[in-house]
Design brief:
heterodimer; A: 288 residues; alpha+beta; Alpha-Beta Plaits; 2 domains; elongated; B: Rossmann fold; six-stranded mixed beta sheet; binds adenosine-5'-diphosphate; binds magnesium ion
Chain lengths: 288, 220
């Protein structure tokens, strides 16, 4: 066992340039992986904050008695998704409108009757928020007898939803691409190392070495290359994080971005695993 | 110990070895002779499964090489010491490490490896060369390193392919002495050689090959 470890270490040092180059390449691939995950994470973060601002305006029929309004309000409040319901009476809506218009209040001149409907301003529990759930809630509310009309940012909601889905797909695509790229890089390097030692391996076989004995040093080497790549990946990813999050915190659009840096700690493990995978593929079946 | 039944090996329409039937008993020392190209090397390769026969079967130490599972091949080879015609020494390892490799592959402890390698080197008279690299040695010395590696694990069967090809007659005789010594301890030995001096007046079995066929057997 110690001997195999020694063989691996010797080979790592002997082939230090190709190994270093491979590790650096893997480091950069892992940087791209970090950037991808960083982006997806922040988009998820932004769209997670949307439900806090998201409200549904439920316009009520004009002729409801106050009893009916109270009943309707508690019914809406009873819905699983609903966080709170704020009742806005006709009069309140009108005065709000007036104060909103301020100097331009003349547009309301001549309007004697209050043309507005009373309404509920419905806020959604953000932990339960999803586009599908909100839409099915709206479908249910639409059929209630006290409801005149419902207004919500449908287009906006759909946009957020599809943007998020698209970003996730792009994120997964990039992740897979990088995973395959890293496996391929290790695969090629190990293939080269293997061919360089072909004659030596031939002799090992003739002397009675098992496939495991032949594979072990390469697996160690591939694992170490991947792990080192992961360490490079940490350094590069942290540099990226530092530039964006620390130095960019005053820049609009970038300033709000954040990321749990602890995530970078998994990069060497990812590198190690992909290193082993690539090596296994490169070695294939050992024939005697 | 080794039984060849109807063995043929064909390379691109050309039979390197054809219809060989041969029985080698436990503890025997047998010579295989014949001109260059007669099929001696091929015959040995078939024994340590570097080649598979096209017809027939070889049974060695209870293993049938034709039906042997691939993953059992290393374990068969561990019973066979081979002195390769082209040595197959690793030029980036010292003499010591080349010989030790045969034991490391078998998982022997380093302490024991040290003893056994040192004994093997003593037997071939190369103790002073243990830290040298193969390419700094003469042909005869490299041949003796190869022999030391083949016998270091005291194999059941020893196959030697032209083991004196690079040696003068004095050295050749001392190599033969080593083989006889190992043979006396119970190792079955097959030596492929075109050098008739090696078996002359030994009283040992000599099998003759010609163009891949076994054409006769004499006593040296
Ligand atoms: N790998 C090979 N491919 C094609 N022909 C081969 C191969 N090995 C040996 N031969 C041929 O088989 C015949 C026997 O070779 P070999 O066993 O090496 O003879 P010897 O060891 O008696 O000199 C020769 O004609 C040789 O050219
Ligand atoms: Mg030959």
């Amino acid at each position: 066992m110690m001997y195999l470890l020694g063989l691996a270490i010797k080979s790592i040092l002997r082939e230090k340039w190709i190994n270093l180059l491979t590790s650096i390449t893997i480091g950069f691939s892992l940087l791209i992986l970090s950037m991808t995950i960083f982006t997806v994470y922040n988009i998820e973060g932004v769209s997670d904050k949307l439900p806090e601002k998201f409200t549904i305006m439920v316009y009520l029929k004009d002729d409801l008695s106050s009893d009916e309004i109270i009943k309707a309000q508690s019914q809406v409040e009873g819905k699983e998704l609903v966080k709170e319901v704020l009742y806005i009476s006709k009069e309140k809506a009108f005065s709000e409108l007036k104060s909103n218009l301020k100097g331009s209040a003349f547009v309301l001149e001549g309007i004697e009757d209050n043309p507005l409907s009373p309404s509920f301003e419905v806020k959604i529990k953000k932990e339960l928020f999803s586009v599908e759930k909100v839409e099915s809630l709206i479908d249910i509310l639409q059929d209630e007898p006290y409801v005149e009309d419902i207004d919500y940012g449908r287009g906006f909601l759909d946009f957020v939803h599809s943007f998020r889905t698209a970003m996730r797909a792009v994120g997964i695509f990039f992740t897979l691409l990088i995973v395959f790229a890293i496996i391929f890089v290790i695969y090629s390097t190990v293939k080269i190392l293997f061919y360089r030692r072909k004659d030596e391996i031939e002799t090992y076989k003739l002397l009675g070495a098992t496939a495991g004995f032949i594979r072990a040093p390469f697996l160690i080497e591939g694992g170490v290359i991947g792990f080192l790549g992961g360490l490079f990946g940490i350094a590069e990813s942290y540099a990226f994080y530092y530039v964006i999050v620390r130095l960019g915190h005053n820049i609009p659009l970038i300033g709000f971005m954040d990321f749990p840096v602890q995530f970078f700690a998994v990069l060497p493990v990812v590198g190690l695993m992909l290193g082993l995978f690539g090596t296994i593929f490169a070695l294939g079946r050992i024939r005697f | 110990m080794i039984t060849f039944s109807n063995i043929s090996k064909i390379y691109e329409n050309h039979a390197a070895v054809k219809d060989i039937n041969l029985q080698i008993n436990k503890g025997e020392l047998v010579f295989v002779t014949g001109a260059s190209g007669a099929g001696k090397t091929t015959l040995l390769k078939l024994v340590y499964v570097a080649e598979k026969p096209d017809t027939g079967s070889i049974v060695i130490a209870g293993y049938n090489t034709s039906t042997l599972k691939e993953k059992s091949i290393p374990f068969l080879r561990r019973n066979i010491g081979v002195v390769f015609q082209d040595f197959k020494l690793l030029s980036n390892k010292t003499v010591y490490d080349n010989i030790a490799l045969a034991l490391r592959i078998r998982g022997v402890q380093e302490g024991e490896i040290k003893n056994r390698v040192s004994n093997a080197l003593k037997l071939v008279n190369l103790r002073h060369r243990s830290e040298s690299y193969p390419l700094t040695l003469s042909g005869g010395e490299q041949q003796r390193v190869t022999i030391a590696r083949a016998i270091v694990d005291e194999p059941t069967v020893l196959l030697a392919d032209e083991p004196t090809g690079n040696l003068d007659s004095g050295n050749a005789r001392s190599i033969m002495d080593i083989f006889r010594e190992i043979n006396a301890k119970g190792t079955t030995i097959m030596i492929a050689t075109h050098n008739h001096d090696l078996f002359r007046n030994t009283g040992l079995r000599v099998v003759q090959l010609e163009e891949g066929r076994l054409i006769g057997e004499t006593v040296g």
